[in-house]
Amino acid sequence: MATIQDALAAAVRHHQGGQLAAAARIYRRILEIAPDQPDALHLLGLVARRAGQWAAALRLIARALRIDPAMAETRLNLGNLLRDQGHAAGAVATYRHAIALRPDFAAAYENLGGLQRGLARLTDAEHACRRAVKLAPGRVEGHAGLANVLQECDALPDAIAAYARALALDPAHIAVCNNLGIALRGLDKTGSGAEAAAAWHRRAVALDPYFAAGYSSLGLALQEQRRLEVAADAHARAVAVDPGFAGAYANHGNSRLNQNRPDEAIAGFRRAVAIDPASPDARRNLGMALLVAGRFEEGWREYEWRLRCKDAPTQAVMPKPRWAGEPLDGRRILLHGEQGLGDALQFCRYIPLVAARGGRVILGLPAALERVMAGLPGVERFVSGQLPTDAFDLHLPMLSLGEVFGTQMDTIPHRVPYLSAEPELAARWGERLAGLSGLKVGIVWAGSPTHGNDKNRSIGLAPFARLAAIPGISLVSIQKGPTEGQAANPPGGFPLLNLSPDIRDFADTAAIMAGLDLVVCVDTSVAHLAGALGVPVWVMVPFAPDWRWMLDRDDSPWYPTMRLFRQDRPGSWNNAMDRLEQALRSHAAHSTHTRTGPSDMPILAPVSWGELLDKITILDIKAERITDADKLANVRREREALIAVTAQADTTRSEVATLIDNLRAVNTTLWEVEDEIRDCERAKDFGPRFVELARQVYHTNDRRAALKRDLNRLLGSELVEEKSYQAY
């Protein structure tokens, strides 16, 4: 008759061969004979775990340990079970108990290190993995686990070396092949690095054609090489292999977004969110795709998930309540930056609206913005460092203002300027610009190198040489950052006034812009500053743009004086520069006036301020409603010229801004009434409706005249338009 040990050995052979049902039958027979046999309880618990029977597995393994508490292997598997069920603290304690029972237990160190890596306890994780490698240098799992931790620590060269040691032990280890590719791509995202990474990802999927993570990683490497369609195919393959792989759907969405196919991107992100509703990255990216498509309501809502992403700013979570848009009634609200300087410059337009709801606004932003925002209406205090929590009552990240105010495409607060240059500072910088002839064009060729998309947006100084050769153009460097030194020795020696070394902060840049005719720049904070100042600005935008520039338009709903020059294909600026050069040549040829300072912009045809602002509101309406490209270009050119003149008046005052809004509404009514009158004219319908519309014209014009008079009074206009009508 076979002994229990013989039966146990037979069951283990079945277990190791994958015949779990047969193994389970023998384990149960053993337990019928010996209910307290710890090995049978332990191994039957492992079979239950493989079958997804978590409660049964936990019960069996815990019972085995009550019978024999010194079984280190059993305690290791209990830790694995707790880990898989999300009981991290219990799993850590159980792994440590297993190590206490067997100090040379390399597998326990490996699992402990992997769990601590998932908990972001990277120092502890590295220590555990290094101990595992020291105890068992011939086990591939130890080297692979250490490599994973080092990669998480961003120690990529060391991680790559550890992956290489793991592959020397097992060249066919699929996960290590894939992770080595990820590390190589992280170390060098240029063509060579991405190509080396892609080779390892291809090896991983060749070893296992059903390895979904490998296909998705391959897609990411191909995206770095700008092979966007092939990348999308790789992500699609990952989804086909594993339809429940939320990350693959999200990556497919990213690849489509990089191809400017937002509808397909949105579909991919929605599928990822349906599988994993709590995935912050997928939901944030869904928000960006919706925003780039102009679907603001849902876009703002989903974009709020950015604050839960791994790279969220530390101040995303505050010990004070978050403002939801309710009346503030004198409470102090901290509006804080969270991403780049350009975001703060774009969204500070909302501050007067926050103040209008009764808020005492405290701005928490980098010091470089303090002087340029000093005159912003509604700011009570500017803070660039730590702020005690008792100094404010509520808070809000600045990019959340769009969602709080329910901003839609047609309700963007787009009146400019909402920032202004210091007059004395502008005059001093104007002296530096005074010797230039022709159109004075400020240029910026690079953003911050730490920006995640900098390789796609920065172009260097050399491409601007062709602009310097245009007759009637003088270029001025207002570039700051690591590349500003290029201005000291421009490629080919083209003429360039280099103001960069003397620019201290954005107030200096704003003051220089007051004396420029145009700013030409890449997508960086300078573009937002120029737009906020109402300075004409031409921005070079990558093929796959940041969400705020949207798609298929050469203007921006955020900045009326901005014009966009988009790449026609990823990685190539040639066509965009050709179009920009042609536009600048035309602009220089037709220019009859250049600026030498903020006061050197006389109204060449004298009119009252009310009449000028009335004209601008009409141009606002035309810019929204005219679709003919040539006509639209003329409208924008005229509007840019008039907006520049308004820099001489304080149009940001709340009472002035309200009158301008009312004037725009009145002119919108007139536009619509006159359209309807023309419809009647075409139909030869001169009945009661025609009479009603005709009467509405003069009633509305009276309201228009009153608004212009109020604007003239508030702005101290020397010229005042008068009307003389018979009473009615």
List the helices and strands and how they pair.
Blueprint: H1 4-16, H2 20-33, H3 38-50, H4 54-67, H5 72-84, H6 88-101, H7 106-118, H8 122-135, H9 140-152, H10 156-169, H11 174-187, H12 191-207, H13 212-224, H14 228-241, H15 246-258, H16 262-275, H17 280-292, H18 296-303, E1 332-336, H19 341-347, H20 351-356, E2 360-364, E3 379-383, E4 394-397, H21 401-404, H22 423-433, E5 439-444, H23 454-457, H24 465-468, E6 473-477, E7 497-498, H25 506-513, E8 518-522, H26 525-533, E9 537-541, E10 562-566, H27 574-590, H28 609-625, H29 629-645, H30 654-683, H31 688-715
Parallel strand pairs: 1-2, 1-4, 2-3, 5-6, 5-8, 6-7, 8-9, 9-10
Helix pairs in contact: 1-2, 2-3, 3-4, 4-5, 5-6, 6-7, 7-8, 7-9, 8-9, 9-10, 10-11, 11-12, 11-13, 12-13, 13-14, 13-15, 14-15, 15-16, 15-17, 16-17, 17-18, 19-26, 22-25, 25-26, 28-29, 28-30, 28-31, 30-31
